[in-house]
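Weekly structure sync, notes
Attendees: PL, DS, HV (note-taker this week)

Item 1: M48 family metalloprotease
DS walked through the input record. Source organism listed as Candidatus Reidiella endopervernicosa. Sequence as pasted into the shared doc:
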Amino acid sequence: MLAALLLPLILLGACSTNPVTGAQDFVLMSEDQEIALGRQYHQSVLKQYKPYDAPELQRYIQRIGDKLAKSSHRSNLVFRFTLVDSTDVNAFALPGGYIYITRGLLAYLNSEAELAAVLGHEIGHVTARHSVRRHSTATATGLLGSVVASRVGVSGAQSLANVIGTAVVRGYGREHELESDRLGAEYLARSGYDPNAMIRVVSVLKNQELFEKLRAKEEKREPRAYHGLFSTHPENDHRFKKVVQAAKKYQTKGYVNGSNTFKQHLEGLVFGPSADQGVVRNNRFYHTDLDIGLDLPKGWKVENRSDELVAKSAANDGWFSLKMQDINRRIEPRAFITKRLGLKKLQHGEQIDHKGLRGYTAITQLSTPYGKRKGRITVLYHDRNAYIFKGAAKGSKKPYRYDQQFLNTARSFHTLSNREHQLAQPQQLHIRTANSKDRFSSLAAKSPIPEHAEEQLRLLNALYPDGEPKPGTLIKLVR
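Item 1 (cont.): predicted structure, written out as tokens:
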């Protein structure tokens, strides 16, 4: 009975005119509140994704975004466009006009129009107030759920942070994404860009998925599902293509592509892990900010993630991981393993005094990609941080198959020499004009890209899977 009475009270005064459609939407916050929330969560985003340090490139992206925003349904908002230092291939938006694109995505775009397509799509989420509308629905459900919760003891509330977080990772759902496609295409046409650039961006992302499936097959693992920008679009999305073509009625002049201008702005863009994430060279890991290096098992495939360094054997029957945690209390490395990491049953343990670094190593039960396995845990202290090495074999019948390699890796841990500081510089994009002799096979042979260099160069230049450079055009290389 109380829930039935509560619903009309929630709905009363909770409607607002949609800036895009002019219809009434169910929302529980004003525009001022929306902007304040965007400002608040913007600070949280910048703690997780720091802005990429390239002022001119940041200004270029802001100029393109401003042009689109002026043609949008909420031109009264001051939009802020930020290039963030992440290898993720993604873009996302917060309420109130805060929009982000990763350098990981920027590297694979090939024209100003494609950049505008990404930004226009995200502007569409803001102008249509998608996060606000989802939050309002979730809040109403939570309020009604709280009535039930008071009787059954289960909470039904959902915070705005959860709504935004889900949208960043998985998008806003098929209908909202299609609405943003329509709006983004319209803003492109009104701003002098070809709406078909949106289709080209989807092609770029679909090729990324094809490449990921190829790598997963080679590495005998499941492909990592992509949940970011345009991820809801099927392979041949007729609805998407229809809304893109419909936007051409807003064309006011000839279309701008801006391929050369865009590529020239990418000169020197970091490709792959940045210096503060650490870089891998020939199975050696260097991190300038932390002043550390180590040797990884030869022949193993290495993946440098944002919070973890992972290596797997060629046959995918061995796994190694390195993570870092701060040391908050002055406890011995063994106590760190048992108390902080919660690994109690240590076997064959021994203290380590390694090049002046204190540590401890032992055999114990670990959580691994293969399930629970006996493996090697090693902790080394360096500069108020604990470096946590884990390693295990897949086969339970040979649990210590790679144990010596895990120990060797931990023992290779060291501070960097002057020469290693130079080796630790990240890879960068280099833009040059293609000549008649250029082939991706020969360009890949000279490239520092450690794996699948030929495929990566084709992906960077929108020529995957078998295209070749066209003489006289600007191409992206890695140095």
